[in-house]
Amino acid sequence: MKLWKKMLAATLVAGLSFGLVGCGDKKASSDNDDKTLVVGFDQNFPPFGYVDDDGNYVGFDLDLAKEAAKRMGMKVKYQPVDWDSKDMELNSGSIDCIWNGFTMNGREDDYTWSDPYIDNKQVVVVRSDSGIDDFAGLKGKHVEVQTDSSALAALEGDQKDLAATFADLNQVAEYNTAFMDLESGACDAIAMDIGVANYQVNSRKNPDDYKILDKEISSEQYAVGFKKGNTELKDKVQKTLDEMAEDGTVDKIAEKYADYGVPGALCIGKNGK
Predict the structure, then answer these.
(1) Which of 75, 241, 257, 259 could form a disulfide with 47 if both were Cys (CB 3.0 to 4.6 A apart)?
(2) If you classify domain 121-219 with CATH, what class do you get?
(3) Average pLDDT over residues 145-174
(4) Is the peptide bond before 116 cis (omega within 30 degrees of 0)?
(5) Closest C-alpha among 226, 173, 176 to residue 39
(6) Residues of CATH 3.40.190.10 domain(s) within the chain?
């Protein structure tokens, strides 16, 4: 019996040791190394980062990242993240940067930032037949917004008086859900980024069924966010982006997304940036 117990114990120890080695090997084979740029992004944020009909990760920001990585002699890996866990992913080293319609305003001290490259604004989308023509028309209405988004920050901050007129302000994980709710009548309006609003409206079967209110909730800028203190990678990416802006590559990539207003929103290479 004692011999059998010793043999069993030895087997368990060997198995545990094997498991530990296996975990170590897995970590060592991670794509997050000096030769790979791991880009964290929200895969439901078109036209900046999303999944196309063929199941591929595409978008303006992902195209920029791919070209930048190529010029830096690196591979690129697109890593979808839940937007409300993006900070954990970045600080743990699972991703190298957040590059996906990432608003820098109000977060300046939380990350190491590239220069801004997109001028953005937060707007409200409603159904064309809703009878809502301005912010006053949102009184008593059900409004949806993405969790941890800039639109939410604005409605809880500078525009809190506006939000106080709503029947409620409900948070959703992503805007595909919000548009399904708008279609079904489960909500009356969506507060969101103008670029995403243009994409969502123009990609519907009947775009004329929706309209974007003229007045904006807030204005802001997009930039690439790196872990606080990671100036080495930021400087490398910034230098490459500046070169891409100078030789016209940024403009060329933006033209692919002209239907969603991306070329007109570019600010990289302007105002001294």
Answers:
(1) 257
(2) alpha beta
(3) 96
(4) no
(5) 226
(6) 36-117+223-265, 121-219
Q: Which residue has the tokens 């791919």?
A: 66
Residues 195-234: pLDDT tens digits? Answer: 999 999 999 999 999 999 999 999 999 999 999 999 999 9
In angstroms, the first-to-last Cα distance of the chain is 77
d(CA 181, CA 22): 45
Q: What is the reported pLDDT for 263?
A: 96
CA 182/CA 130 separation, integer angstroms: 10
194-202 and 175-184 helices, crossing angle to 10°: 50
Averaged pLDDT of the chain: 89
State the CATH architecture for 36-117+223-265: 3-Layer(aba) Sandwich (3.40)
Query: Are the C-beta atoms of 207 and 179 separated by less than 8 Å?
Result: no
DSSP string, 182-227: HHHTS-SEEEEEHHHHHHHHHTSS-GGGEEE-SS-SEEEEE--EE-
Mean pLDDT of 65-83: 96
Does the pLDDT at position 43 exceed 90?
Answer: yes
The encoded tokens of residue 222 equal 């997009």
pLDDT of residue 31: 58
Q: Would you mind telling me the total number of residues written for the chain in this entry?
A: 273
Q: Which residues are 97's β-sheet partners? A: 39, 226
User: Quick check: 38 and 44 in contact, CB under 8 A?
Assistant: no
